[in-house]
Amino acid sequence: MGLEEHLGDGILFTTLEKAVNWARKSSVWPFGFGLACCAIEMICTFASRFDLARFGMEVTRASPRQADLMIVSGRVSTKMAPVVRQLYEQMPEPKWVIAMGACASTGGVFNNYAIVQGVDKIVPVDIYVPGCPPRPEQLIEGIIKLHKKIEKESLKKKREL
Amino acid sequence: MNVEILKKTEKPETETMILNMGPHHPSTHGVLRVILELDGETIVKATPDIGFLHTGIEKTMENKTYNQVIPLTDRMDYVASLSNNLAYLLAVEKLLDIQAPPKAEFVRVILTELTRIASHLWWVGTHAHDIGAMTVLLYAVREREKLLDIFELVSGQRMMTSYFRIGGLAKDIPEEFEPKVREVLKTFPDKIEDYENLLTKNRIWLNRTVGVGTISAEDAIDLGVSGPVLRACGAEWDIRKSNPYSGYDEFAFDIPTGKNGDVYDRYLVRLEEMRQSLRIVNQALDGIPEGDFVERVPGVVLPPKEEVLSNIEALIFQFKLVVEGLSLHRITQR
């Protein structure tokens, strides 16, 4: 396979960008952050049956300073919205956001005065996972989609939000 | 050495410290902010700040029809959605003066008791996790998944089932229902033993739960506390015994109570309640009667599909019910 054939074992050529993105997507640390019903399904995804450790994601971080991924799991009330925004800003770059479930994506069944109609009004969202609440398999599908997205990111260009 | 400084350190003057906890907190389940006043490591005052999950569910319900409200009740206490469904439906059925058929009552009892177990499992798991016993969470979630499988089997959804409807159930129980529940009845008692082995005599668990968060029975009643928290205070009060509904008076079960009203007693009460729930489920499963799964009150419950296609009255009822929704006024007038 090209140049690598003539080199010793264990030497491969790649671009820095690919290598960095590979490392980033292989161990995304999610923020241990639950809001409502979807948080229950999110915890189920982390726990015994679905075991998110298979995707290098078992380390949920309690502090936003150590987290890469915010999974907005549930309805965001107007009182909670500034908190979510602040937590997002406290996360270091690069960072990603998954809007888990109908409420985080669009407000869901709660089209009323109390609920922010989609968390993308306050933080930029990378992946929307539909469902009320989404099954753990659906969340895993969203995470795999996010991994694919991370693989294609550019190191130099700032991410378009 | 400066003697003055030494004297000061020997008798340190303490002052309290204010610490903000939440609304995002490492152990967050639901979002709550508590402003804590600490004296060393002891909390001397805690001021809660609520409303971070205020959803306006009642307001949303105001402009929905009676059937449309059922999915909203699922999302109120989302770890025990079937119990919420039942509470709401009992009220609606009382207003309409209709009674669910015996088969529906039995299935309702089985599923709400399984919901109680699932909810208690979630409590034990997350509480142990917060105290540092991660294993219990993984075990509890493992067993809860078995219960969610049953909910999914009957309704197609793991959590937000909306399986109970006005007058009975959304559809009949499938054949696999009984063997699946029997399997849980067979395997689950050993699992409760597992939790007991991990926690009941665990020194860290005891240190962090015994004497913590004590409420006296009088305070609990004054504050309107109910459920296992009240029973842990020693008050033997259970709505299933004192004001039976859905045929609970036909089943034999005990009400476990605690003595001290602390977190440890609440834990013991919940574990025993899981055992009692299994007892109820066992009796109910043995006695599921034959018959229809819903009381077919015209204008309240959707008519069977075959009738809709062959009978003009049934078609009109279906049409009116879907388009207009349930009108309490019209029903009570008839």
Q: What's the CATH class of the largest domain in chain B, please?
A: Mainly Alpha
* Helix share bin of chain A: 25-40%
First-to-last CA distance of chain B: 95 Å
Mean pLDDT of chain A: 89
Named at the architecture level, the CATH assignment of the largest domain in chain B is Orthogonal Bundle
* Major sheet strand order of chain B: 1-2-3
Number of strands of chain B: 5
**What does the overall shape of chain B look like?**
globular
Number of domains of chain B: 3
What Rg of chain A, in angstroms, do the CA atoms define? 18 Å
State the end-to-end CA separation of chain A: 38 Å
Query: What count of helical segments of chain B does DSSP give?
Result: 15
Uncertain parts of chain A: none
The interface involving the most residues is between:
A-B, 33 and 33 residues
Describe this entry's structure for a reader.
- The complex is a heterodimer of chains A (161) and B (334).
- Chain A has 161 residues and is mainly alpha-helical.
- Chain A has a single domain (29-149), classed as Rossmann fold, CATH 3.40.50.
- Chain A has 5 helices and 3 strands; from the N terminus they run H-H-E-H-E-H-E-H.
- Chain A has helices at 16-26, 37-46, 81-90, 101-106, 136-151, and strands at residues 69-73, 96-100, 127-129.
- In chain A, strands 1-2-3 form a 3-stranded parallel beta sheet.
- In chain A, helix 1 runs antiparallel to helix 5 and helix 2 crosses helix 5.
- Chain A is elongated.
- Chain A starts with 15 loop residues before the first helix and ends in a 10-residue tail after the last helix.
- Chain B has 334 residues and is mainly alpha-helical.
- Chain B has 3 domains: 13-49, no CATH class; 57-286, Orthogonal Bundle (Cytochrome-c3 Hydrogenase, chain B); 298-334, no CATH class.
- In chain B, 55% of the residues lie in helices and 7% in strands.
- Chain B has 15 helices and 5 strands.
- Chain B has helices at residues 3-10, 57-62, 66-74, 81-96, 102-131, 134-155, 177-199, 203-209, 217-222, 227-232, 239-242, 263-286, 305-310, 312-323, 328-333; strands spanning 17-21, 33-39, 42-49, 164-165, 168-169.
- A 3-stranded antiparallel beta sheet of chain B has the order 1-2-3, with no helix packed on it.
- In chain B, helix 3 (66-74) runs antiparallel to helix 4 (81-96), helix 4 packs antiparallel against helix 5 and helix 7 packs antiparallel against helix 12.
- Chain B starts with a helix and ends with a helix.
- The chains are: A mainly alpha (161), B mainly alpha (334).
- The interface between A and B is medium-sized, with 33 and 33 residues.
